[in-house]
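Anyone? Bumping this.
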Amino acid sequence: MNRVMVTGLGQVSALGSGLDAFAAAVFAGRPAVRRLAEIEAPGLADPIGAAVEGFDPGRWLAARLLPVTSRMALYAHAATTQALAMARVPREERPRGGVFLGTGFAAIAETEQTYRDCFSRPGARPRPGTIPTAMANGAAALLASEHRLKGPNLTFSVACSSATHAIGQAFRLLRAGDAELMVAGGADAPLTPIVLAAWAAMRVLAPAGEDPARACRPFSSGRQGLVLGEGAGMLVLETQAHAEARGAAPLAEVVGYGANADAGHITHPEPEGVRACLELALADARIRPGAVGYVNAHGTGTLVNDRVEAEALAAVFGAGAARLAVSSTKPVHGHAMGAAGGLEAVATVLALREGLLPPTANLEAPDPELPRLDFVRGASRRAAAGVALSSSFAFGGSNAVLAFAAPAARQT
Amino acid sequence: MSSDTFIRVRRIIASYLGTPEEAVAEESRLQDLGVDSLSALELIFLMEEEFGVSVPDHRVADFTTVRDVCAGIEALRAPVGPR
């Protein structure tokens, strides 16, 4: 079995493009959430979200490809370009690499626009580029084509756990020796009129309130729900042997992955399923709960998720739960759906690398009804976590937990 | 070939490909402008919408140069049958 290293990171989100802007906001606990006044969502009077701003597609992709490339594919491509550049994978090595990409909504904005045109305007037809643009694997195909990645190319659609599963499955492939290099993560651009309205219909969106930036309050008393986000978080993963052969320094190591299904309610998480997934990840990593220094929680800010997740963490970590540092970075970058696990994996790797744990923004008073966990809040916290978990618990009950370890101390 | 047709065709092609209009000449080959099989279909679609014509499948391969596009559009717009 091979050891698997993270050698590159890339992201696009409401926080900007690249790691500097991302790290600055995540570690400061500074939400990038605003009113989406330009979006008319039926039944939702005051939509808010963590929207990508000032993204220039022409910076990343040739103009002639833009008409047949969806917004979420552009995000995935920009993040992948960054990650491969950071990893410094030589051009001649890239054909060995595969792509595992997670997405919940694929090219939903482009699909909505096509339906809107065709159903509302007499004589309207879908464009020839509709299928390649909108098909769920379109973004993964673009990544392969633009970066000459000729390895296995798969798209994972598992709602909020898409990216975490994509990374976990890539980890398994590399560990088993079926690949040496993989690009893995997730992308989503779900801030559309119908998607926003459909989420609102489930009554789980945090209201805008006076300050949308303070709307998402995971683990807090009086939390009122989630805030949607968008973007992409991508990782370059390779076997330790492949990384060492080309002199690439690891940013972190992927040490475990748990995957299971609640087999329960379609939107309500099962405490037993969540708990079991955490334990599967720990068992896969062959580590005891006490070795975990930080958990980047799913932490959406809904009443139900945060309670079920906190109880599951307490059950797994037992007496050590009160000392377990936990935070959710979703208030800062939003719940980016299929991209969430990618952005959160980036945050988790940065936390291990920097020895800095991000706070849960907007968490002033933890809900007293939740088990006692050591919620990181206020400022980020200096701590060498050693091992960190990143969790995603999706609608449909497909759970995913990744375990990362800090890179071994280098000899200077 | 009317200059009006060319002007409109040039605008559509340049805008779609993200290239300056000066790069699109009558004799320009679509392939040289960066048009592949998929973007050719998209451009034909846009021409159909712009000019109110319908290009039959068997004519798609005829569009090799910008001049071919203009000529093909005008042929489709020309009235047929006795006046």
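Late reply, but here is one note on the structure posted above: Chain B touches chain A through twelve residues (CB under 8 Å).
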